[in-house]
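thought: fold this chain, then report.
action: predict
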Amino acid sequence: MSKRYLFVLLISISCLSQNKQILYNFTSVPQSLMINPGADVSYKFYFGVPLVSGISVSAGSSSFSAHDLFANNGVDFNTKIRDVVYRSSRQDFLAMNEQIELFSSGIKLGDWFDNKGYLSFGMYQEFDFLMYLPKDIAILALDGNENYLGKSFNLGDLSLRAEMLSVLHVGFHKNATDRLILGARAKIYMSPFSATSTRNSGYVYTVPAATTVYEQAIYSDLQLNTSGISEYIAEGYEGDAAGDIRKKALFGGDLGLGFDLGLTYYPKKNIQITASILDVGFINHSKDVETFTYKGYYKYEGINPNFNRIDDPDNVYQQFSDAIPLDTVHNRYTTWRPAKINGSYQYSFNDSRGGAECNCIRTESEYRNAVGAHLFVMTTPRVPIMALTGYYTRNVIDNLQLKATYTVDPYSFKNIGFGFSSTLGKFNLYVMADNLLEYRDLSKANSLSLQFGFNFIFKDSESLD
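observation:
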């Protein structure tokens, strides 16, 4: 029973690839600037409704769904867990992410910048957690090593990082030419807590040395860096952890710096190429820092023990603890943000202006239809996470835009998404969701995501009155 709970604990820790393929280049929504600071967005002025201008939540697994574990189909739960573990690889991961925009605004600058400069700024809160499925460790926890003599269990399978942060940002973009928009965004990261363990190594190796004797070698180089959480996990803590973390999230915790870059280029007025790189930055963790290590080498020869105080022949547990001790040190450390890269190619058609002359930089209503492709890449401690999206956008009327997407990613080959943006007067509403085919039975979905928000948008022809 304890082995089952240990595995459930391991797979409950999760991550997200943070791809926002529906929002990317959906420029009727101001928040598209957050994933391409060089997006073709140039409202006279906009501001988001505080706390609800941009909310996104996502969850997913690259190897199994909730149905695989919890379906009421008469299959034993331990069997379901083993099936999941055996068909997974160490490159599989689980996913969960949330982001809440606290405030945001943007404004077109005056004659000093030739009416082509655009300033945007705001602040958002994000929770980001990444963990790969530790396959060898899960097998060892579920089955032990009795049936795996001669197998080397890789302790380096353990790889995770978790961070809550608030981000204060300011961005600027400008029409460099009639065909090219360049943009950049500076960021200040504030992290109330962090946990990272990504550079682990080691092994557990057991072979028979005689008829009833085993030779077992354990090499461990495991390390978990934490900041901002020691008081909450201390024995006897009775405070309000959630409340404390919320306070630290606003101008508290550890600090870091980062930047985004982006561009939009029109080789022809109906062909658009975009690119962006996001979150090139770091956080320096120096407050309430604790690093836990299991480092050492231990070799045992005898009857195979469980290395606990209950089964402790010849004081093996104490020998093991002395050889591979749990140490705690208080050294500052640095984490790098997972960088995200986006690129897209778009072809627009059905010119609604009747052939009137214009510059290449377009407005939302120039073309009613567009098709395109979008590539997303995110760095991780192992191989990059990638996704490829084909999409279609439609300007139904000037105040209603639709976007449909088909995405191939580590979660699924049948991810269909849909989003719309509607502006009534100056009030803008947008809603986006993906994996729509799985809404018939959400328990079978490998991933789900939802984004929505509310803004006030003032276009060039409108005043602030």
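thought: worth noting. The longest helix spans residues 2-12.
final: tokens above.
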